[in-house]
Each structure stands twice: as structure tokens, then as C-alpha cells.
Amino acid sequence: MPFLDYVLQIPSYGWKDTAGYLVKPTAGQILKEFVSRLNLFKTRKNWLPVFSWLKVACLAVFFVLFLVYYLSWWTLLAAFIYGMVIMGTHGTIWHHRYCTHGAYKFRNKFWRFVTQNLTINVIPEEIYVISHHVHHSKSDQPGDPYNAQAGFLYCFLADVNHQPIAKDLSEGDYNRVKSLMKHTGLKANTYTQYARWGSYVNPYRAILSWILNWGFWYTIFYLLGGNALAFSLFGAAGFWAVGVRTFNYDGHARGKDRQRTGTDYNHNDKSINQLWPGLVAGEWHNNHHLYPKSARSGFKPHQVDLAWYYIKLMNWLGAVTEYNDNKKQFYERYYLPYKNAHLKVNES
Questions:
Q1: Whose C-alpha in 43, 49, 161, 239 is 20 to 30 A from the C-alpha of 8?
Q2: Boundaries of each Fatty acid desaturase domain copy (predicted)?
């Protein structure tokens, strides 16, 4: 059985039925699985999903207090820019293009650390990276951890129900997980520690990193604009933390066939290019599925790609030494043949 078929913890309702078709669990089944996997009394190996949602809960407090005490035109603007643009773009730069796909390389550990901590720490890299490899391997097929065809809730709660790594991997398979995570700079548990905690990252290191990151950014925001700015931006991070869980459902057209000729060129799955995620986070999703290892996914002139601009800036500064850019291949293999064929049709 291929490694990516079993590297993730299989939900109680399974990925597919006996005939090989996608299992579409009921809302009740999904919520039951969600509660079970957040139960630390059941097993300490549930700690990482609990940790992830604990951050969301803490950020939700900031968000509510922002609305009650600090809402004004300037804090709303700051929150919008931070939550919609900065957080989203950083997720594309760090979690997506670097941690998962290795689309570029840093000169040294310092620049990697800086990029990792450019924003408020929210999503555990381990939950994102391993499951995203599976997503690309099984996009819109049974086993895809956020298969849009199974519904909104299936995708929204995927970080708990479908994305954590399996808790019973052999030492050899755990080493394969380590190889997929090594370049991120996160220190790995030993196999003995993995057997105890059920995770790649150690909880003590994860909690310390969280405290230091949040403490640093709260201090910076406070010095720049007092509690008003700090609560606004932490609240914005909370809004993004919830909103980002809806992205793959929308990015795969809510499980429908909504690809557009001349806009979406990858037809191996249901991914689509969307204007808003593209403009604010560089997430031209169909382009990305066409060339997942490209550091740029905004190939056309109107496809603004803020994540790519950061990577290019870092390359200009010498902080990034290598990157993949598939714009030329996209034009040669997809856009120009389509454009030329379209012109011939119009001429005839």
C-alpha cells in the first residue's frame, strides 16, 4: 500500500466504502469524530488538534474584545489588511510553497526562522504539510483529507478529523514523515517520543514556540499602537484562522464542476482560480495544482501574487538562493496553445 494511503489517521467513518466510492459522512458523524479527537482524556495523542483549536479559541477572545472595545475605522482597516492580506500571504509563503512543496530554498536557518515567524503563529506545520502531500496525491478522490465533494463541514473540521498523522506508524514510516518535514527546521520527536505523543513535533517545544511568538508580536503591536492595535491584529488573526478552514472547499468549487475555459487549465481535479484568494494571498489554486512546486502561481499579468513578490524580494536580498518558477512552461504548454486555437476559431 502506498505510504500516502495510510500516513494520515483514518477517521472512524473511513475514506471510502467497500465499492471504492467516497464516504460522505453525516454532520452527526463528523461532529462525533471531531469531539472524539479533541478528547485528551481518551488519549494524550490528541494533544496537537487540541493545541491547534486552543489557539483559535484564544484568538476568538481577542476578536470579541476588539469588536467591543477597540473597533474604529483605523483598527478595522488594520485588521482587514492583517487578516485578509498579511496572514493569508504568509500562509502561502511558509506553509504552502516552502514547508509543503519546497518551491524555494533559504540561504540559512536565520532567514528561514524569520520567514516562519513573520506573523502570529496559528497553524501547526505538521498538520498542514503531511496532509497537503496527501491532498495533491488524491485531489478530489477518496482519501483527500479535505475533499469538497463530502461537504463544507468535512472540509472545515478537516484539521482535526482528517489531517493529523497516524498514531501507529512503523519506525520506517515515521522516518518518511521526518524526511517530509526536515527542511522546515522543526525538531522532530524521536520514534519513542512519537509513540508517546503521536506527533512529529514535541508538545513542550510547540507550546514554548507559541508563547514566544505571541509574546513577541503582542509587544511589537502594543509599542506601535497600544492595546487597540494589538487586540485588532490578534483578533484579525483569529478571523483568518477560522476563514482559512473554508478555503479548500471553495478552492475546489464546493465539489462541483465549475472550471472555466481559458481560466482553469488543470482538469485533473476540481480546483479553480479565484480572484479574491489570488489577489490577497497569491492563491491561484488551479495554477498551483498545475505546477505545485512553483514559487509563483500568479502566471498571467492580472494574477497578482504577493507571496511570489516576497520570495523574489528575498532572492534579491540574498536570503533565498533558489526557487522554481513555472511561468514560462505555463505559457508554452497551456496559455499560448489555448490563445492560438481561440484565434484560429475566431478567424474562421
A1: 239
A2: 72-293
Instruction: Supply the DSSP symbol for 16.
Output: B
DSSP 104-122: EEESSHHHHHHHHTSS---
Give pLDDT tens digits for 197-252.
Answer: 999 999 999 999 999 999 999 999 999 999 999 999 999 999 999 999 999 999 99
Q: Cα separation of 208 and 234, whole Å? A: 18
Domain boundaries, the chain: 3-98+116-257+269-284
Note the helical H segments in the chain: 27-37, 47-65, 73-80, 87-91, 109-116, 125-137, 152-156, 158-161, 171-181, 191-197, 203-243, 247-251, 275-281, 285-290, 306-317, 327-330, 336-347
The single residue listed with the C-alpha cell 514559487 is 295
The amino acid present at 120, given as its one-letter code, is I
The rounded distance, in Å, linking the Cα atoms of 25 and 34 is: 12
- Quick check: 275 and 315 in contact, CB under 8 A? no
Own/partner pairs for 335-343, CB < 8 Å, 24+ apart? 335/265, 335/299, 335/300, 338/261, 338/262, 338/265, 342/262
What's the pTM value of the predicted model, to 2 decimals?
0.95
